[in-house]
Structures are given as structure tokens and as C-alpha cells.
Amino acid sequence: MYNLIGAGLIVIGGGIGLGQIGGKAMEAIARQPEAAGKIQTAMIIIGALLEGLAFGALILGK
Amino acid sequence: MVRGYLKTVFVALLLSVSVGMQAQEDDHLSDHDTHITDAEDDGRVNTDDEIKSYIEHHLKDVHDFHLFSYTTDAGERAHVGFPLPVIVWTTEGLKAFMSSEFHHDDDASVLVQKGNVTLAKYHSRIYELDNGTTEIAFDEEHHPTNAHKVIDFSITKSVFGLLMIGVLLLLMFVGLAKQYKKRAIPKGFGRVLEPLVLYVRDEIARPNIGEEKHKKFMPYLLTVFFLIWIANLLGLTPFGFNITGQIAVTVCLALFTFFIVQFNGNKDYWKHIFWMPDVPVLMKIVLIPIELLGLFTKPFSLLIRLFANITAGHFVVMSLIALMITLKAQFGAVGSTGLSLFLTLFISVIEVLVAFLQAFIFTMLSALFIGMAVAEHDHPEHAHGEEDDVDEVRERFV
Q1: % of chain B at pLDDT higher than 90
Q2: N or C: more exposed end of chain A, with fewer CB within 10 A?
Q3: Phi and psi at residue B259, in whole multiples of 5°?
């Protein structure tokens, strides 16, 4: 029961984080469209790292 | 070139013929098959529990290649697919037979006698019955009480899929490599592959590992990239492979990355783990366990990410397909099927993107970790004082 709540909390945190990453990347691309490629790559990497954390919580908390 | 196509056609033919043959064989066997599934409805998937167990069964690795089942005119269930070899190490040594001897059974109701060893399959695991027992017994948590697991080397569905991908990759890339002996620009299918290879080199390997050293790691990066990508895409076909959704597969891939990173780590890499430069001595000691932990969390997050993404993807796709059964009462047969197909179509398109993204991420992070291990650091601490450092950094940013 508690592990499920913990997993849920981590996933909520992961969601907030992913939103932040995506939003900031959008802003950055809007400000500097010529760097879109680099920003996208960095965004995907950080998104993947975060996703790994959230999925790890899901799997371990199940 | 023509020979290359012929080879591909031959492999495809071989596969389809074996599928067809097995379908016929299964019709003969179907009188054995009737008892394997729930007696009332012949193994059709109707209730929520059946849907759940069906999805869970799909996410596991299985011992036979099962495409679909249908009810014949005579009212019997026929399964279309083909058996795969079962190779197990029992107390009596190595035993090998075809999985058709289990007759699609998955709840230990069919026993296979091999010499003095009796084998049963339960939830995709093969158990060896203890001496003198003729029926398998389970405790409350569905663990067998009078049988033990055997060491399983079987060519399971995932192993079969991996071998298939191996053959496919060989056909594709040996052909591409041979072309470069004759001409500078490849022809035919090679024109699709060349940009992908260049993409891995220019977008993944070069920026992360560096201009001088990336060449050494290109074979590994290309292999994992195409292996994961094709395995992911194969999971979206009706063949129902779930290769990268097997934790064993992703563990193996992550171990490869782990060992490549450790064996190629240079002096600086190990120094950053055991004696971090440019920090106070107390901090150096505190950082050792953290860095050591980081050594293992990197490949761990690699394997969990791939496994969880693909498992979740398959789960969502199958759940949406199952909507046509669960919502039948509310929307009618046509409405629920339409809704289910509509949603499945769009989630499948997202899954095609995820299939590429996960292959890209795995390769990218592998390259990043390798790059961190082989990078040459030039610490200016010996050349000049700390204040110069600060100035240098300031200059770079202003």
C-alpha cells in the first residue's frame, strides 16, 4: 500500500519534471530557433534520465 | 544484389511454409488441446480476469510461437503457430524436445516424460517433478511444492526473435558493406541504411565520444541501435514478439555497456571515482561511495528504462485492443470495436515513435557513458592557481 503511494508520488514528481523540461526547452527553442537541434537532443536525454527514475519507481513500487 | 533479394525471399518463404505446416499439424492435435483452456468457453478471452491473464501471458517469454487460435467447424479450438525447441538441464542432464509435446499447456496439466525425468510447464516456466510424484501440487502462492525449476536453455520466442534479427542484420549490413568495395554510393536498400549509420555516427557517437575515439565504439553502438530498434518494431507486428520487454534481454544489453565502459575507462575516469580532483579531502572521501553507486545506477537505469517503456507500451496497446471486449455491453459490438481500433491506431503510431526513441536513447546514453570514461581531462590545477581558473571560466561566459 505505502509503496504504491510512494511510487505514485515519484511519478507525480516525474510528471512535473518532464513538464518543466519540455516547457523550458520550448522557450529556449523559441528564443533561439537555430539551436533547436541541440536543445532537442539535450531535452530528450534529460527526459530519458527522468523517465528512467519514474519507471524505476513504478517497477520497484509495484 | 539479386542474390541478396533471393536470400530474403527464401527466408520469408521458409517462415511462411513452416507456419502453414504447423497450422495443419495443430488441427490434428486439437483434440488434445481442448482440455488446456477453461473448459466452459474453450479458451476464448471474455472476462476481465481472462483479459488480464492473457496480457500477462503475452508480456512473458513463451516456449512456442503462437499466432492465433480459432474454433473449427467441429467446435474444436485450433492453434496456429509453430513449436520451438525446449532445451533444459535436468538432474539427468541435458534434455531436448519440441515444445509441441506440451500441447500448448501452460498450467502443468500435461506432463512430458523424458527418461526418468518428468517435466511440466507452468506459467512459462518448466519444472521437473520430484521422484515418485505423478501430479504437480501448488501452495497458496502458486509455487509448486513437489517440483523444482530446471536450467532452461530453450530457444524461446524471444531467443527465436533475436536470432531472426541477427540474420536480418547480417543480410542487411553485410550487403551494404560489400557494396562499398564497388561503388561510393550504395544502391537499393542500402540507401535507406546509409543515412541511419551516418546518423548514429554523426549525432550519437561523435558528439559524445569525440572525434578521435568514436571509431572504436561504432560497431557496438550500431549493433545495439539496430538491434533494439528492430526488436521494438517487431514487437508492434502481429507476431507478438516482446523481446526488449524481457528484463533478461535488457539486463544483458546494459551489462555490455557496463563492461565496455569499465574496460575502456582511462586513468582520469577512475580518478574521478576514487579520488575526485579539485575538491577538499573530506569531500573526496564522501564522494567515493556516491561515485561507486553511480557506476551501477547508470546501467541499471538503462535497463529499467528500456524494459519498462516497452512493457508499458505493449500493455497499453493490448488493453486498448481489449476495450472491444470490455465495452461490448455498453457500446455494442461495432461501436466498441470501432473505438478500440481508433485508439489502437493512434497509440500504435506513438509506439512506432517510442520504438525509435528508446533505441536512440539507449545508444545515446551508452555513448555518453563511454564518452565520460574515455574523455581526456586537462585539469589546470597544476599549471596555474585556482584564481586563474575562475578567471578563465568568467572569460568563457562573459
Answers
A1: 32
A2: N
A3: -70, -35
